[in-house]
Amino acid sequence: MYKRLSIVMFPFLVLALIGAAVWGYLEHQEKNTILIKAENQYQRAFHDLSFHVDKLHSELGKTLAVNSTSEPSYRKGLVNVWRLTSQAQSDINQLPLTLLPFNKTEEFLANMANFSYQMSVRDMTKQPLSSEEIKTLNTMYDHASEITNELRGVQDKVIANNLRWMDVEVALASQKEVHDNAIIDGFAIVDKKVGAYSELNWGPGSLSVFQKNDVQTLPGKEMTADDIKQKAAQFLGGQDASHITVVENGGGSPEYQSFTAILPEAGGSDIHMDFTKKGGYLVYYMNPRNVQETKYDLRQARDVANEYLDQHDYKDMSAVSYDQYQNVANIIFAKRQNDVTIYPEQVSVKVALDNLEVTGIQATDYIFGHKERTIGQPKISAEEARKSTSPNLKISSQSLAIIKNELDQEVLCHEIIGRMNGNIYRVYINADTGYEEKIESIRPEQAKQAASA
């Protein structure tokens, strides 16, 4: 019986074995194909990185070789430096370096890109490169040369020893100390050398993308946890401070130190508030909850939010942006001074549209942008500013505003809102020079909401 059963089952077992072998082979082939594709992408990105940094070094040299009074040549060179630096950043992002400390090099390249961009968009006929900026360009050239040589060394080892980037990814993902990996060691050396460079003068405002708001620059005294309890209780309309828990944040970094105040809510989410340690300024307030329906419109939400801000000492604020999502209105207010909108001083307010309760405030921009300003008179008239826009733009409103331009400088502008080609635009014309500083597109539904509010 068993012999007969074996004879019957044997062909099926053989077929199953062959099928398993074929399946395993195909899976192995598919895995190898994916690995080869990933390896090829890594290799391409690495060699592109080496090429772009080499070209960056060459372009910096050519830019420095021309006379500083030659505006077209300098502008062309700086644009090429910005383009090549941005490409090098893109190449780095395609490599498996997330677990490898390479942040110093990435930050240096980002600063180079930002510096060259800011210089290239500047009107050099009125503001030519200063001696300090030329010195920065020379230092960038020297550092680019050193980075190029180090990357070439790594590239030579990769080619000579047929090194694989997949091994780097596996080694980094294992989270174990890695020894004798030429690629990892090479990139670690590059980052260490870049980190040892002395700080460069990147120019005023050119590092705004990378700098963090430093609470140590704020006026006022250092707050204690008890001080914050009292502030939170006062903000909540005289709430019992004993029910509020305060947690200190920031650790040993003074520039990030803050306090979080938490008030437990019965049957709902806790109320959270963040205050700066220096001065005790409210950074944000959150009272999250589900808003099931919309009973009120944006105009009513705006009025409630405006009154709420006024009660909490955010004076002379005007709504500049409206949005609605999941039955919650998000309204941005900016400071108004002498009929001028000051966009660097902004507060965002969330209002539930079922009962007009304020459920959130974000005041970071207001805290770090709040200061005394002397607003001068515009040199360009409103009529002259309108001539700087397209004749096809159908203007609906015009006013004065202070914004931050691409150099992170505050400038007085004519704010012109108009419609063209089915879109609504907000155009900022410099009130001193008549040049366009910025153009923003406004969503039609947002503009409609703003008009109704």
TrEMBL record:
Keyword Lipid biosynthesis found: no
* Alphabetic keyword roster: Membrane, Transmembrane, Transmembrane helix
* Residues annotated as transmembrane: 7-26
Q: Where is the Sporulation protein YpeB PepSY1 and PepSY2 domain?
A: 185-375
Sporulation protein YpeB N-terminal domain sequence ranges: 30-167
Cross-referenced NCBIfam families: spore_YpeB (TIGR02889)
**Could you tell me what this protein is called?**
Germination protein YpeB
Gene name for this UniProt entry? ypeB
